[in-house]
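A brief tutorial aside. Many learners find it easier to grasp structure tokens once they have seen a single protein encoded end to end. The record that follows does exactly this for Dol-P-Glc:Glc(2)Man(9)GlcNAc(2)-PP-Dol alpha-1,2-glucosyltransferase. Read the sequence first, then the structure, and try to relate runs of similar tokens to stretches of the chain.
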Amino acid sequence: MIGLPLVAHTLTLGIVANAVNSVVPLPYMDEIFHIPQAQHYCRGNYMVWDPKLTTPPGLYFLSVGFKAIGNVLSLSVPCSVQSLRATNLLFAFLLYFVLVAVSSRLHPHMHTRTRYYALSLSWFPVSFFYFFMYYTDTGSTLFVLLSYLGVLSERYFTAGLMGAVAVTFRQTNLVWIFYFMVLSIMQLVRSRTSSRDVLYNPTCDKVASPMDVFRSMASLLQLTCKQLIYIVPRILMFLVTLAGCVAFLVWNEGIVLGDKSNHVAGLHFPQLFYYTSFLSFFSAPLALTLQNGKKLLLFGWTLKSILLGLVSTGVMAVAVHYYTFEHPFILADNRHYSFYAWKKIYRRHWLVSRLKESHRLDQLVCPSYRISCLGAVDDWLCDHTGGHSCPFPATRIQILHTTFFVLLHSHPSSICPQPICHPSYV
């Protein structure tokens, strides 16, 4: 496991963390809420809660746990700004190993390239920023991926337990816990199939009509009901976690813990287009190939595809016009990525000044949104039809239809209710 990627990861974390702590020794951005709350917990003041905090206290409890372990080992672990930030440094260090393990299971033939692939994912720009701050993002990502690794390893109790921890970092992770539970059920059903009871779950390229969609979902439900006694004990931790989340939603009268007036859930459909644009931008080095260009220019222009493109672009324009929201927080802090994207592009572009409304630029770029949506779907499917646009064609994943169908519903459920456009939400 020790190699150049791990050495590079470790040294980079240490060097950047030292620079950040030297230049920014005091709480920065939202740390002004997180750090004082953690320090209250360190002093045993568990009944104190800052009403501006919107996420559960999982991060603070783990920081207190690390402090307790340090006390047992006779190590002085103060709850200072630097030591609290070190919590996320530990998470970031462990994240590399989790990504190696996940990548090894998804792409078993990559061998040594797996480590470099994991390193590039670890250093993804948006998540990399939060490694050195006391935010919930890094821990949330780590435990969500640990839950997914548990599913891939068929250790369902561990997967459910890690999912429960992930929810204590960000309550919206319950959507991904539900997705992992469905994946677990599919694996359990397939492991018990016989010649009489075979799960109908073709790969996406084999789905010929909407009836195949209903048939695959009906097949999964039918076989799940038949094997309920076998399945339920194995996904019990998922069920307990989801039941706890539902109880919390009822008790809290919503998903947000604090500052509810500024975090009202709604229908923010353009979040999907921001996400696909975001994904397309960062996958451009892999997607912008000569072969993909030929496929777009030469093979996609049929009457059916043109009509579909016009209709879908029209639907996007309607969604943009009626469901675009400019949250006050977007322009309240110039230390966020979204501040510059919104202020420098959406509000100040010359096209916007002519059209007089900031969200009209979104309507003008709806065709590019549609292209980015196609690119995102292609990234998800990893060119399952057998071409070579996938970054790792030799280790291509055959995406099963039900898996993709549930994923297609899980991701919008996670980001569309969010009132604020921010890269960390995707």
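Self-check: The longest helix spans residues 81-106. If you spotted this yourself, you are ready for the next section.
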